[in-house]
Amino acid sequence: MKRLFATLLGAFLVAGLASCGGGGGAVVDDSPEGQAVQYRQSVMRSLGYKVAAVRAMASGEVPVDEAKFRKDTADVAALAGMLPEGFIPSSSVAASSAVPEVWTNMADFQQKAADLKNAADALAATAASQGFEAAKGMVQAAGSTCGACHRPYRQRAQDEQ
Fold it and tell me: What are the tens digits of pLDDT across the range 27-38?
């Protein structure tokens, strides 16, 4: 019971700090555009985390865990579907890595987002129905859809150049 209470208290404190900008004096942009940037960055971080876990198993860096692989591929598919809604008009703000071409080339951007979703859905469906061995060869193709969008529509950080 004490452990449950401590866990709930910790979750409450983390949620409280997050709601006030992390407690470090960070300025939170509460405009719709600022919220969109925060949303898409959160989805991207989560997507990157899950893709890395799937890729690590597919490449043999970590032992295969069928259940985790199925869950992570399903999570990748769900997150991929959530991503486009964070790209609202005029949300190319200073905190964003998105380049202005996202909004001037929205049809292409949306197609690339759909390609990611389709590849992620196919990967998740194969993992769920046929297992890791059948799906592991699809991981690279699904991952390449990330780069197909990042190359034209994402500013590279100084440390990536």
Answer: 568 899 999 999
